[in-house]
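Researcher: Sequence recovery benchmark, item below. Answer with residues only.
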C-alpha cells in the first residue's frame, strides 16, 4: 500500500513539473510575441503555418462587421482577435474607472476592403514613387523618362545624386542596350532638380542649398544674392563658422550677413529626409501604428489595429485529436503522439496570439488613461511622469511584460505618430515628467538669440525661475539626449 502511495505521489509530482514546464514555455512564447513588431509577428505566423500542418488560415468570406464583447457569451468566445481591431467604445467610462480597464469590444472584418480603415504609415509612398509621379507629368518622351527612372533610382537617402553622370549612362547602356550621352542625362537631371522638394537631385550639399536659395529670391532678391554668394564662394568658411572672413571678403556688414544667414539656415541640406525612410521603390520602410487614438469632443477612443490572418486548427486534426483523446487504456502510436503534439502546439499558438492582443490593448489603454490630457490637447507639457511599474500596477501585468509591449510599438493620434516610449519618463517633480521638461529645453533653445545662445547654466536658471527643481548637469544631459550642441556651437552672427 505504501509503495502504491509513493508511486502515485511520484506520478503526481511528475505531472506537476511537466505542467509547470509547459506553462513556463508558454510564458516565454507570449513574451516573445508581445515584443514583436508588425513585420516580425507576421513572419512568426508564416513560420508556424509552414512548420505545423495542424495550423491553417481560416477561410473568411464574410465581409460584414460583427460586434462582440468579451463578457462571456458564446459568440464572443468564438471571435478571434486576428484581423481584428479591439476598440474602446464611447460607452466605456475610461476616465472614471478606478482600475482604468474595462471590457474589450471588438469589431472584426474578415477581409480588408476599400471602405475599411487601414492604419496610416510613415512614408506610405517612397521617395522614388513621389518623384516618378511628378516626372511623368512633365513633357518628356519615352527615352527621357527612361533616363529619369535611372537617375531617380540613384538618388540617395538624403535626396542627393552622388553617382557620376557617366556611371548612369553606363547603367542604361548595359541594362537597356540604349546608348545615351552624359549631356542627355544632365538635361533630364535639370528637370528632376525642378521637382519638389526643392533641392532634390542635387549633386552635392552645396548645390542642394544653392538650388533652394534660388527658389527664395522672390522674397528678397538682394539678400538672397548675398546668401547665394556666401554658399557659392565661401562654403567651406561658412561650414567652419569663419564668419569674419566671409564678411571681410564680401565687404558687407554684420547685419547684412545675419539676414543672409537666416536664408541659408532655412534651407534643408537633406531634402530626402522628409520621406522618413531611405528605402526606395517598393521596398519603402513603413512604420505602421499598432494603435489608433481618436479624440471626438474630448472623448478618447482606442483601437488596436493589426492585419494578421485569422488562424484555426485543421478540421482533420480536430477529428483525429478527439478520436485519440477519447480512447482509454490504449497506448498511443508514434503517429498519434505526433498528431497530439501538433494539435496542442497549434492550439497554444492561437491562444498566445489572443493573449498578446488583449495585453497590448490593455497596456496601451492604461497609457492612454495616464496621459489622457496629452491625447486630448496635444500639449507635451501635460505629459505626466510615468514608469513601467505604474502601468504594471494598473494592468496587474509583470513589469517585464510592459517593457516588452512598448518595444517597436507606435500609436497614431490626432497630433501625429508616437513611439510608446515617448510617454514614459521619470518625475522631475511631483507633476512634471522628464519628457515634458525636455520639450521646454527644446523650445527655449529654438527661440534663443542665436548671437547669444543660452548656456546650460542660463537654461538651468530659467527653468528654476519657472519653478522646476533641476540642476545644470541634468539640463546638459537632457540637451545632449535631444542631440542639441553646446551654446558655442549654436552661435551665429
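Model:
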Amino acid at each position: 500500500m505504501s509503495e502504491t502511495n509513493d508511486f502515485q505521489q511520484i506520478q503526481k509530482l511528475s505531472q506537476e513539473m511537466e505542467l509547470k514546464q509547459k506553462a513556463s514555455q508558454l510564458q516565454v512564447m507570449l513574451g516573445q510575441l508581445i515584443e514583436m513588431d508588425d513585420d516580425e509577428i507576421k513572419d512568426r505566423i508564416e513560420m508556424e503555418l509552414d512548420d505545423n500542418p495542424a495550423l491553417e488560415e481560416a477561410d473568411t468570406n464574410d465581409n460584414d462587421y460583427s460586434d462582440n464583447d468579451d463578457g462571456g457569451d458564446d459568440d464572443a468566445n468564438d471571435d478571434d482577435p486576428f484581423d481584428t481591431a479591439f476598440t474602446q467604445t464611447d460607452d466605456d467610462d475610461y476616465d472614471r474607472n478606478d482600475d482604468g480597464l474595462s471590457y474589450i469590444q471588438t469589431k472584426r472584418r474578415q477581409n480588408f476592403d476599400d471602405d475599411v480603415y487601414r492604419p496610416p504609415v510613415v512614408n506610405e509612398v517612397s521617395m522614388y514613387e513621389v518623384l516618378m509621379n511628378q516626372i511623368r507629368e512633365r513633357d518628356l518622351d519615352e527615352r527621357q523618362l527612361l533616363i529619369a527612372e535611372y537617375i531617380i533610382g540613384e538618388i540617395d537617402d538624403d535626396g542627393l545624386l552622388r553617382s557620376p553622370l557617366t556611371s548612369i549612362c553606363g547603367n542604361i547602356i548595359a541594362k537597356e542596350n540604349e546608348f545615351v550621352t552624359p549631356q542627355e542625362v544632365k538635361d533630364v537631371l535639370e528637370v528632376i532638380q525642378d521637382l519638389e522638394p526643392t533641392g532634390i537631385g542635387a549633386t552635392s550639399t552645396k548645390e542642394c542649398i544653392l538650388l533652394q536659395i534660388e527658389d527664395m529670391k522672390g522674397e528678397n532678391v538682394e539678400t538672397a544674392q548675398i546668401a547665394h554668394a556666401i554658399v557659392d564662394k565661401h562654403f567651406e568658411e561658412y561650414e567652419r563658422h569663419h564668419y569674419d572672413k566671409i564678411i571681410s571678403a564680401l565687404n558687407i556688414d554684420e547685419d547684412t550677413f545675419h539676414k543672409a544667414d537666416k536664408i541659408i539656415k532655412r534651407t534643408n541640406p537633406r531634402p530626402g529626409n522628409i520621406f522618413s525612410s531611405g528605402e526606395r521603390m517598393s521596398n519603402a520602410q513603413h512604420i505602421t501604428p499598432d494603435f489608433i487614438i481618436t479624440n471626438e469632443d474630448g472623448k478618447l477612443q482606442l483601437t488596436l489595429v493589426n492585419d494578421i490572418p485569422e488562424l484555426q486548427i485543421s478540421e482533420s486534426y480536430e477529428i483525429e485529436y478527439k478520436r485519440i483523446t477519447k480512447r482509454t487504456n490504449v497506448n498511443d502510436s508514434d503517429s498519434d503522439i505526433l498528431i497530439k503534439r501538433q494539435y496542442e502546439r497549434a492550439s497554444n499558438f492561437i491562444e498566445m496570439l489572443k493573449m498578446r492582443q488583449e495585453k497590448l490593448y490593455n497596456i496601451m489603454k492604461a497609457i492612454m488613461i495616464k496621459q489622457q490630457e496629452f491625447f486630448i490637447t496635444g500639449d507635451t507639457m501635460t505629459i505626466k511622469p510615468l514608469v513601467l511599474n505604474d502601468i504594471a500596477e494598473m494592468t496587474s501585468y509583470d513589469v517585464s511584460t510592459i517593457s516588452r509591449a512598448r518595444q517597436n510599438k507606435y500609436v497614431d493620434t490626432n497630433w501625429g505618430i508616437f513611439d510608446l516610449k515617448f510617454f514614459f519618463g521619470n518625475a522631475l517633480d511631483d507633476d512634471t515628467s522628464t519628457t515634458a521638461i525636455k520639450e521646454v529645453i527644446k523650445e527655449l533653445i529654438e527661440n534663443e538669440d542665436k548671437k547669444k545662445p543660452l548656456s546650460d547654466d542660463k537654461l538651468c536658471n530659467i527653468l528654476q525661475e519657472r519653478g522646476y527643481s533641476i540642476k545644470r548637469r541634468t539640463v546638459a544631459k537632457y540637451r545632449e539626449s535631444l542631440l542639441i550642441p553646446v551654446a558655442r556651437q549654436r552661435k551665429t552672427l
